[in-house]
Design brief:
alpha/beta, globular, 7-stranded parallel beta sheet
């Protein structure tokens, strides 16, 4: 698929792993319902992130700002790691090469530079992971689909609040948005073996 259809010409053939709302304090409404699902997801997601990094596939953390418009990802990390559920953050924390997009609403694309960032990276395919399956993951998948991005959702790397709604959301993503619904182990990150791009617009292939 062609992200360049929005921002320029050229075919985007790379992939990016998008980690949604996993830098989390878990002190919000429905957190107790979410925690058990998140605990199952974190080890799977940690392995997925590790494979993406090993294959030089960009990892983009897209995270709510919890309504604090002065927040940046360092502040969010410090806050999350200081709370009782830091054990859910530590295994999946961003490294120095990770990218970060702050969001204020459900979709990772809504009023964020995500689409432009993916174009710079040459990523025409996104692997959506994180939480919540029936909310932010679903809406992000829809926004990716209407931007002509290929979408993969590893069902064991997304956490949910309501399992019944999560199952329906995965079915909707597959049927209505053409998303591949797989297990995390089925996600293929080919090793590019190349250097990291500087992400300049005149090199849309970027880091894959």
């Amino acid at each position: 698929m062609v992200v360049g259809a929005v921002y320029g010409s050229g075919e985007a053939t790379g992939s990016a792993l998008v980690v949604i709302d996993m830098i989390n304090t878990y002190d919000h409404e429905d957190a107790e319902l979410l925690l058990s699902s998140a605990r199952r997801v974190v080890p799977v997601l940690a392995e997925l992130i590790g494979r993406a990094r090993a294959a030089d596939v960009p990892v983009v953390y897209a995270n709510d700002n919890f309504g604090l418009w002065r927040s940046h990802h360092g502040e969010l990390m410090e806050t999350a790691l200081s709370r009782p559920h830091a054990d859910l953050i530590e295994p999946i924390r961003p490294d120095d090469d990770s990218l970060f997009v702050m969001k204020a609403r459900h979709s990772v694309f809504y009023e964020t530079p995500m689409a432009y960032l993916l174009w710079q990276l040459g990523a025409g395919h996104v692997v959506l992971s994180g939480q919540v399956t029936e909310q932010c993951v679903l809406y992000s998948a829809l926004d990716a689909h209407i931007r002509h991005l290929e979408v993969t959702v590893p069902r064991d790397a997304v956490a949910s609040i309501h399992p019944r709604l999560a199952a329906a959301a995965l079915d909707m993503m597959e049927r209505n948005m053409g998303a591949r619904i797989v297990t995390a182990k089925e996600v293929d990150f080919p090793d590019t073996g190349g250097p990291v791009s500087d992400g300049q617009p005149d090199r849309p292939g970027g880091r894959r």
